[in-house]
Write a structure and sequence with these properties.
The protein has 197 residues and is α/β, with parallel strands linked by helices. The chain is globular, with a radius of gyration of 16 Å.
Length: 197
């Protein structure tokens, strides 16, 4: 598995330094107590927050890439998604019926008004929306926290299929150790902004 994303002496907020390598086609699980810096780490990797040290994607340094271009290749999936238009379809550039069906939706979901979506529906649709740009790195912050077991399994399968078919990688934050064991090739524990395993 070739290395896709590398963090070397990476610092963010008052956390770090940390070193991490993420390989193409696989995912790394990240767990730790609340307040350990997991979500902040994902935001910093997405270049949404200030950071220091070295951060490279395919050997290209983050500091050499405009933030909007960086985020075309690195997608941050926050635990709470943001919606800016009234209907679901306005958030999608093209309808991909297969992916909608894979996550348990009929095609008419594109006509639904965003305000009627449950938190779990928002979470699944936000994942599909983010995958439209075909990012190389998925930064997943509790991507199935609001889901029942059936929809959790659908999300896990979709992510695994995407990583394999696109040669992408994921950093997957979850408090569910069983999920990380199922979905990730390796796991790391974060404590006060540093890896302890």
């Amino acid at each position: 598995m070739s290395t896709l994303l590398t963090l070397t002496g990476f610092t963010y907020h008052h956390f770090g330094p940390i070193d991490l390598q993420l390989g193409a086609g696989g995912s790394t699980g990240l767990h730790g107590e609340s307040g350990a810096g997991k979500s902040l780490l994902l935001r910093a990797i997405a270049d949404l927050d200030e950071h220091g040290g070295k951060l490279t994607l395919d050997n290209q340094d983050c500091s050499d890439v405009p933030p909007n271009q960086w985020r075309q290749h690195i997608a941050y999936f926050a635990s709470e998604s943001f919606w800016w238009a009234d209907t679901v379809g306005e958030h999608f550039t093209a309808s991909n019926a297969h992916d909608l069906n894979t996550l348990g939706f009929d095609n008419d979901v594109l006509n639904w008004r965003v305000h009627r979506l449950s938190s779990g529906e928002r979470q699944r649709l936000a994942l599909l929306r983010g995958l439209q740009t075909q990012p190389q790195v998925l930064l997943l912050d509790e991507p199935s926290a609001n889901l029942d077991s059936v929809n959790r399994d659908r999300v896990e399968k979709l992510v695994a299929t995407y990583l394999n078919s696109h040669g992408a990688t994921a950093l997957w934050v979850s408090h569910d150790r069983d999920q990380l064991a199922r979905c990730c090739q390796q796991t790391r524990q974060l404590h006060q902004g540093r890896f302890i395993t």
